[in-house]
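Need tokens for this chain, all 190 residues.
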Amino acid sequence: MDEGVFQAYENEIQALEEEICLLTEKYEDMQQESTFLSDEEILKAIKSLQGETQGETKGHESPSDLKAQLESLETDLSFLMEFTGFHFTSHSKKTVEKTQNRTVQKHRLSGKCHSIPFQVEFQLLETQNDEKVSAVVSDLSIIMESREDSNVSKFVSRTEECGDLLTFFRSLSTYAEWYEHRRHTFLHFK
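Here are the structure tokens for all 190 residues:
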């Protein structure tokens, strides 16, 4: 057999093996996302889909109804962003480890709270025992623009040590809101 033909077959085999690996990873990610849903959520989704398909066959949902629903959802999202002050600009999730009853994912969030930009990276360990799912945050890393207030950097360091995301978001929301009030007040006196 000619050496060039042999090499072409080897290259084709290698390309197919790489494609298989990529497709396997995609499949595992899709399977993983579906395992995070509870039985109740799956049943609700099935009923919702059944209702949608029945509505489509009967012609209940027109494009104008869908447009109205989309506008309503956009209004709700806008209200929540205005109410909380959080505007998330990106989110990425990567599965680090997955077993039958344990999943480790690495998350990265970035955005702004009022005018303060932030980036949060953490690992989320989810374990499932007898119909009970528990989640633990670890390796928390918070990146914020350096502010003149040293208490903020102390708070960020303490939060990273504790791994308490909820406290971070609550405190950041309050701090950012009052930071804006202080900034507007000082601009008024200038």
